[in-house]
Amino acid sequence: xxxxSKILAFLTEPLAWVALLVAAGLLSVNRRPRLCKGLLTxxxxxxxxxxxxxxxxxxxxxxxxxxxxxxxxxxxxQYTGVVILGGALxxxxxxxxxxxxxLNSAAERMTNVATLLRxxxxxxxxxxxxxxxxxxSGLSESQRAQLFFSSQGITGKQVRYESASRNTYENAxxxxxxxxxxxxxxxxxxxxxxxxxxxxATFQKTGWNVTAYPTDFRTAPNVPWTQYSMKNSLSIWRTAxxxxxxxxxxxxxxxx
Length: 256
Hints:
By secondary structure, the chain is α/β, with parallel strands linked by helices. It has nine helices and five strands; from the N terminus they run H-H-H-H-E-H-E-H-E-H-E-H-E-H. A five-stranded parallel β-sheet has the order 3-2-1-4-5, with helices on both faces. Strand 2, helix 6 and strand 3 form a beta-alpha-beta unit. The mean pLDDT is 91.
């Protein structure tokens, strides 16, 4: 399933759909010119719509609002620890400068941990993430996470790392098997808000007693209708398509 998900990743690229329409139009230019015109016109309209922020916001928003955010003053003393899902660190080939810790657009998965520990210093931490790249090399994500957390003073026996998982399902299964981790106790599950529905369903399916701790929100309740950004909207579209398709695949396969 991991390899299939990588091969079919083009389905989550909105520009790939536009390119397919353009290609289909060009192939029909001689035999069916009216069809060619329709396909090219459609591709142009879709391309313009992809940059309209309210539309992309509306597609991703239902995922992000499935679970409420945890308030800063929430009492979390009843929890054993927090499971942090990988996905916030840049690929290992970019980690070339000593002392430089490269985070991506999901950085809040990592940076919010320090804030959480200041208010709840007794929480245990489990970071789960091996390497999500198809052709992985260099440091695993867990190794990169350990470098980052160590630089923040987050070390010791309260932190455990799982380094073999490549997707959300393996995150749940492999971290559950870590020594001295009891998934029946109460745990917080920290990941991006848009990824939380699939993560929660998967962890609960595999026997974890988890409560959602969403972070890295990408949408807003009210977006001005005049807001337009091809760069930002394409990123939101890509995230939304990836997550909706992933959630569907996990439910069909019985993993969520």
